[in-house]
Protein backbone atom coordinates (compact mmCIF):
# COMPACT_ATOMS: atom_id res chain seq x y z
CA UNK A 1 0.00 0.00 0.00
CA UNK A 2 1.03 3.59 -0.63
CA UNK A 3 2.31 5.44 2.46
CA UNK A 4 -0.47 7.68 3.85
CA UNK A 5 -0.74 10.90 1.86
CA UNK A 6 -3.60 12.35 3.87
CA UNK A 7 -2.71 14.53 6.85
CA UNK A 8 -5.73 15.12 9.07
CA UNK A 9 -5.74 18.61 10.60
CA UNK A 10 -6.62 18.18 14.28
CA UNK A 11 -8.13 21.65 14.65
CA UNK A 12 -9.47 21.10 18.17
CA UNK A 13 -9.27 23.22 21.33
CA UNK A 14 -8.30 20.36 23.65
CA UNK A 15 -6.52 17.03 23.74
CA UNK A 16 -9.61 15.03 24.64
CA UNK A 17 -11.40 15.93 21.39
CA UNK A 18 -8.24 15.27 19.38
CA UNK A 19 -7.75 11.84 20.98
CA UNK A 20 -11.41 10.98 20.48
CA UNK A 21 -10.98 11.53 16.74
CA UNK A 22 -7.61 9.77 16.61
CA UNK A 23 -9.25 6.68 18.19
CA UNK A 24 -11.54 6.52 15.18
CA UNK A 25 -8.76 6.83 12.59
CA UNK A 26 -6.15 4.41 11.28
CA UNK A 27 -2.43 5.33 11.12
CA UNK A 28 -2.16 3.19 7.97
CA UNK A 29 -4.54 5.60 6.25
CA UNK A 30 -3.51 9.03 7.51
CA UNK A 31 -1.07 11.18 9.42
CA UNK A 32 -2.09 13.89 11.90
CA UNK A 33 -1.39 17.63 12.07
CA UNK A 34 -1.19 19.52 15.36
CA UNK A 35 -1.41 23.29 15.04
CA UNK A 36 -0.97 26.24 17.39
CA UNK A 37 -4.36 26.00 19.11
CA UNK A 38 -4.10 22.34 20.03
CA UNK A 39 -0.40 22.45 20.88
CA UNK A 40 -0.91 25.47 23.14
CA UNK A 41 -3.63 23.54 24.95
CA UNK A 42 -1.83 20.22 25.30
CA UNK A 43 1.92 20.64 24.84
CA UNK A 44 4.09 17.76 23.67
CA UNK A 45 2.25 15.16 25.75
CA UNK A 46 -0.41 14.78 23.06
CA UNK A 47 2.27 14.28 20.40
CA UNK A 48 3.62 11.35 22.39
CA UNK A 49 0.15 9.88 22.87
CA UNK A 50 -0.59 10.06 19.15
CA UNK A 51 2.80 8.64 18.21
CA UNK A 52 2.22 5.76 20.65
CA UNK A 53 -0.93 4.98 18.67
CA UNK A 54 1.25 4.69 15.58
CA UNK A 55 0.50 8.05 13.96
CA UNK A 56 3.07 10.24 12.25
CA UNK A 57 2.69 13.81 13.50
CA UNK A 58 3.15 17.04 11.55
CA UNK A 59 3.85 19.80 14.11
CA UNK A 60 2.43 22.86 12.35
CA UNK A 61 3.78 25.68 14.53
CA UNK A 62 5.20 27.79 11.65
CA UNK A 63 8.31 28.96 13.53
CA UNK A 64 9.38 32.52 12.67
CA UNK A 65 12.01 34.17 14.89
CA UNK A 66 15.72 34.93 14.97
CA UNK A 67 17.81 32.09 13.51
CA UNK A 68 19.11 30.79 16.85
CA UNK A 69 15.64 30.60 18.41
CA UNK A 70 14.14 28.84 15.40
CA UNK A 71 17.06 26.40 15.26
CA UNK A 72 16.57 25.48 18.93
CA UNK A 73 12.81 25.04 18.46
CA UNK A 74 13.42 22.81 15.42
CA UNK A 75 15.90 20.74 17.41
CA UNK A 76 13.35 20.15 20.15
CA UNK A 77 10.68 19.21 17.59
CA UNK A 78 13.07 16.72 15.99
CA UNK A 79 13.89 15.25 19.41
CA UNK A 80 10.19 14.76 20.05
CA UNK A 81 10.30 12.55 16.99
CA UNK A 82 7.69 14.37 14.93
CA UNK A 83 7.50 13.35 11.29
CA UNK A 84 7.30 16.91 9.97
CA UNK A 85 7.74 20.47 11.28
CA UNK A 86 7.50 23.84 9.55
CA UNK A 87 8.88 27.38 9.59
CA UNK A 88 7.99 30.61 7.76
CA UNK A 89 10.09 31.22 4.65
CA UNK A 90 9.59 34.95 5.33
CA UNK A 91 12.01 34.49 8.25
CA UNK A 92 14.72 34.73 5.60
CA UNK A 93 17.75 32.81 4.39
CA UNK A 94 19.75 32.83 7.64
CA UNK A 95 16.78 31.57 9.62
CA UNK A 96 16.06 28.82 7.08
CA UNK A 97 19.70 27.74 7.03
CA UNK A 98 19.80 27.63 10.84
CA UNK A 99 16.65 25.50 10.85
CA UNK A 100 18.18 23.17 8.25
CA UNK A 101 21.37 22.79 10.27
CA UNK A 102 19.34 21.97 13.37
CA UNK A 103 17.56 18.96 11.82
CA UNK A 104 19.49 16.09 10.27
CA UNK A 105 18.28 15.59 6.69
CA UNK A 106 16.38 12.33 6.33
CA UNK A 107 14.91 12.52 9.85
CA UNK A 108 12.08 14.95 10.70
CA UNK A 109 10.93 16.62 7.47
CA UNK A 110 11.50 20.38 7.50
CA UNK A 111 9.18 22.39 5.30
CA UNK A 112 8.37 26.10 4.89
CA UNK A 113 5.21 28.13 4.61
CA UNK A 114 5.73 30.42 1.61
CA UNK A 115 3.02 33.02 2.12
CA UNK A 116 -0.13 32.76 4.21
CA UNK A 117 -3.13 32.40 1.89
CA UNK A 118 -4.94 34.95 4.07
CA UNK A 119 -2.61 37.66 2.70
CA UNK A 120 -3.72 39.52 -0.39
CA UNK A 121 -1.99 42.19 -2.45
CA UNK A 122 -3.03 45.00 -0.05
CA UNK A 123 -1.59 43.13 2.94
CA UNK A 124 1.67 42.68 1.06
CA UNK A 125 1.81 46.39 0.18
CA UNK A 126 1.17 47.24 3.86
CA UNK A 127 4.34 45.46 4.89
CA UNK A 128 6.35 46.73 1.93
CA UNK A 129 6.44 43.54 -0.13
CA UNK A 130 6.27 44.33 -3.84
CA UNK A 131 4.71 41.87 -6.29
CA UNK A 132 1.71 39.63 -6.69
CA UNK A 133 1.13 36.93 -4.04
CA UNK A 134 1.97 34.26 -6.66
CA UNK A 135 5.36 35.86 -7.31
CA UNK A 136 6.15 35.98 -3.61
CA UNK A 137 5.14 32.32 -3.27
CA UNK A 138 7.57 31.45 -6.09
CA UNK A 139 10.34 33.49 -4.49
CA UNK A 140 9.83 32.00 -1.04
CA UNK A 141 9.69 28.46 -2.44
CA UNK A 142 12.99 29.07 -4.25
CA UNK A 143 14.54 30.33 -1.03
CA UNK A 144 13.36 27.22 0.83
CA UNK A 145 14.75 25.05 -1.98
CA UNK A 146 18.11 26.85 -1.97
CA UNK A 147 18.34 26.40 1.81
CA UNK A 148 17.76 22.66 1.25
CA UNK A 149 14.50 22.44 3.12
CA UNK A 150 12.49 19.32 2.29
CA UNK A 151 9.59 21.22 0.77
CA UNK A 152 6.83 23.80 1.19
CA UNK A 153 3.17 24.15 2.03
CA UNK A 154 1.32 25.44 -1.03
CA UNK A 155 -2.10 25.58 -2.60
CA UNK A 156 -2.96 22.94 -5.19
CA UNK A 157 -3.07 25.75 -7.75
CA UNK A 158 0.64 26.38 -7.20
CA UNK A 159 1.80 22.77 -7.18
CA UNK A 160 2.11 22.30 -10.95
CA UNK A 161 4.55 25.15 -11.31
CA UNK A 162 6.52 24.37 -8.14
CA UNK A 163 6.81 20.70 -9.11
CA UNK A 164 8.21 21.69 -12.51
CA UNK A 165 10.64 24.18 -10.98
CA UNK A 166 11.98 22.11 -8.11
CA UNK A 167 11.72 18.51 -9.31
CA UNK A 168 10.33 15.31 -7.89
CA UNK A 169 12.20 15.28 -4.56
CA UNK A 170 10.78 18.59 -3.28
CA UNK A 171 7.87 17.86 -0.96
CA UNK A 172 4.61 19.75 -1.66
CA UNK A 173 2.00 19.78 1.11
CA UNK A 174 -1.41 21.07 0.08
CA UNK A 175 -4.45 22.21 2.13
CA UNK A 176 -7.80 23.44 0.75
CA UNK A 177 -8.98 19.98 -0.32
CA UNK A 178 -12.64 19.07 -0.82
CA UNK A 179 -14.53 16.28 -2.57
CA UNK A 180 -17.18 17.52 -5.04
CA UNK A 181 -19.96 16.93 -2.54
CA UNK A 182 -18.17 18.51 0.46
CA UNK A 183 -18.98 21.92 1.95
CA UNK A 184 -16.14 24.34 1.13
CA UNK A 185 -16.49 25.88 4.65
CA UNK A 186 -14.37 29.06 4.77
CA UNK A 187 -11.91 27.91 2.09
CA UNK A 188 -12.03 30.28 -0.91
CA UNK A 189 -10.49 28.09 -3.56
CA UNK A 190 -10.77 24.35 -3.13
CA UNK A 191 -9.34 21.49 -5.14
CA UNK A 192 -10.35 17.85 -5.25
CA UNK A 193 -7.88 15.32 -3.85
CA UNK A 194 -7.43 13.79 -7.32
CA UNK A 195 -6.61 17.16 -8.87
CA UNK A 196 -4.16 18.08 -6.11
CA UNK A 197 -2.26 14.79 -6.53
CA UNK A 198 -2.37 15.13 -10.33
CA UNK A 199 -0.90 18.64 -9.97
CA UNK A 200 2.04 17.18 -8.06
CA UNK A 201 1.12 17.37 -4.36
CA UNK A 202 2.76 14.74 -2.14
CA UNK A 203 0.55 15.22 0.91
CA UNK A 204 -2.96 16.60 1.38
CA UNK A 205 -3.90 18.46 4.57
CA UNK A 206 -7.59 17.76 5.19
CA UNK A 207 -9.52 18.98 8.23
CA UNK A 208 -13.30 19.30 8.38
CA UNK A 209 -14.21 16.82 5.60
CA UNK A 210 -12.82 14.19 8.00
CA UNK A 211 -13.06 15.73 11.49
CA UNK A 212 -16.71 16.77 11.06
CA UNK A 213 -17.83 13.67 9.17
CA UNK A 214 -20.39 11.33 10.74
CA UNK A 215 -17.92 8.53 10.15
CA UNK A 216 -14.37 9.97 10.05
CA UNK A 217 -12.78 6.61 9.22
CA UNK A 218 -15.11 6.11 6.26
CA UNK A 219 -14.44 9.67 5.05
CA UNK A 220 -10.71 8.99 5.27
CA UNK A 221 -11.10 5.68 3.39
CA UNK A 222 -13.12 7.39 0.65
CA UNK A 223 -10.52 10.15 0.28
CA UNK A 224 -7.79 7.53 0.05
CA UNK A 225 -9.74 5.59 -2.59
CA UNK A 226 -10.10 8.80 -4.58
CA UNK A 227 -6.32 9.15 -4.85
CA UNK A 228 -5.34 5.50 -4.88
CA UNK A 229 -4.89 5.31 -8.64
CA UNK A 230 -2.44 8.21 -8.80
O1 LIG B 1 -10.91 22.01 7.57
P1 LIG B 1 -9.95 22.28 6.45
O2 LIG B 1 -9.76 21.10 5.51
O3 LIG B 1 -10.29 23.56 5.70
O4 LIG B 1 -8.55 22.50 7.21
C1 LIG B 1 -7.39 22.82 6.52
C2 LIG B 1 -6.23 22.90 7.45
O5 LIG B 1 -5.12 23.39 6.69
C3 LIG B 1 -6.39 23.85 8.63
O6 LIG B 1 -5.62 23.34 9.72
C4 LIG B 1 -5.79 25.14 8.13
O7 LIG B 1 -5.28 25.94 9.15
C5 LIG B 1 -4.67 24.61 7.24
N1 LIG B 1 -4.24 25.53 6.19
C6 LIG B 1 -5.09 26.03 5.23
N2 LIG B 1 -4.62 26.91 4.28
C7 LIG B 1 -3.34 27.26 4.27
C8 LIG B 1 -2.46 26.76 5.22
C9 LIG B 1 -2.95 25.87 6.19
O8 LIG B 1 -6.26 25.70 5.20
N3 LIG B 1 -2.90 28.05 3.32
Automatic annotation (TrEMBL):
Gene Ontology annotations of biological process type: 'de novo' pyrimidine nucleobase biosynthetic process; 'de novo' UMP biosynthetic process
Active-site residues per Swiss-Prot or TrEMBL entry: 60 (for ompdecase activity), 62 (proton donor), 62 (for ompdecase activity), 65 (for ompdecase activity)
Coiled coil region boundaries: none
Binding site for substrate: 11, 33, 60-69, 117, 178, 187, 207-208
Domain of life: Bacteria
Ranges where the Orotidine 5'-phosphate decarboxylase domain occurs: 5-223
Pathway(s): Pyrimidine metabolism; UMP biosynthesis via de novo pathway; UMP from orotate: step 2/2
UniProt key word Nucleus: no
SUPFAM superfamilies according to UniProt: Ribulose-phoshate binding barrel (SSF51366)
Any Pfam family hit: OMPdecase
Catalytic activity from the UniProt record: orotidine 5'-phosphate + H(+) = UMP + CO2
One GO location term (cellular component): cytosol
Leading EC class: lyase
Signal sequence interval, chain numbering: none
Molecular-function GO term, any one: orotidine-5'-phosphate decarboxylase activity
The keyword Lyase is assigned to this record: yes
Keyword tags: Decarboxylase, Lyase, Pyrimidine biosynthesis
EC number: 4.1.1.23
Family per record: Belongs to the OMP decarboxylase family. Type 1 subfamily.
Known function: Catalyzes the decarboxylation of orotidine 5'-monophosphate (OMP) to uridine 5'-monophosphate (UMP).
Assembly and binders: Homodimer.
NCBIfam families recorded: PRK00230.1, PRK13813.1, pyrF
Protein name: Orotidine 5'-phosphate decarboxylase
